[in-house]
Amino acid sequence: MGTKRVGWARIRSLINENANQLGPRYAHVRSALTANTTLTAADYGKVILLNGAAAANFTITLPTDPTVGAELTFCLAVNNNAAAQVVVDSGTDNKIEGFAIALLASSNTTAYHSHKILGFDDAAKRGSMFHIVCVDATVGARRWLILDSKCDIAFINAIV
Question: How far is CA 20 from each of CA 25, 49, 71, 90, rounded to the nearest angstrom?
């Protein structure tokens, strides 16, 4: 009988210690950005919402000192204005690399991207997104790998 009590007590203890893992999971979201913003380490793991509804371009700059494994997801919360480009800049001598997928009405296209900047062009639709992870944190040669990407038009690699 004594071992049963210890067993049940241990089970209850484990459940209480891990209650946060048993509960529902929610994405950590940063409110929709509408202007030039520099992200910090506190943003790692978050879904960064972007609002390009105004007729103005803006740039989101990645943290300057990422660690390997740092992840960020960027998503358009509203349709981009016909005169708004929203881009993510990895910094001087750094790159965002991987396959950027455009899901077009007539066909789907995949393009290999290896540039400092990745972003959403004029009139990109709500829900267009990309998810990146830092795979090399070497100063001057940081690499962010595209894990997932979807856009209704081709991604861009510069504001024009």
Answer: 9, 25, 21, 33
Query: pLDDT tens-digit profile of 35-91?
Result: 999 999 999 999 999 999 999 999 999 998 999 999 999 999 999 999 999 999 999
User: Contact 86/48 with Cβ under 8 angstroms?
Assistant: no
CB neighbourhood size of 6 (10 A): 9
In angstroms, rounded to a whole number, what is the distance separating the alpha carbons of residues 20 and 66?
27
- What phi-psi label fits residue 43: left (phi over 0), alpha (psi between -120 and 50 degrees) or beta? alpha
- What pTM was estimated for this model as a whole? 0.83
**C-alpha–C-alpha distance, residues 75 and 95, integer Å:** 19
How far apart are alpha carbons 95 and 112 in whole angstroms?
A: 12
Check if the beta carbon of residue 122 is closer than 8 Å to that of residue 155.
no
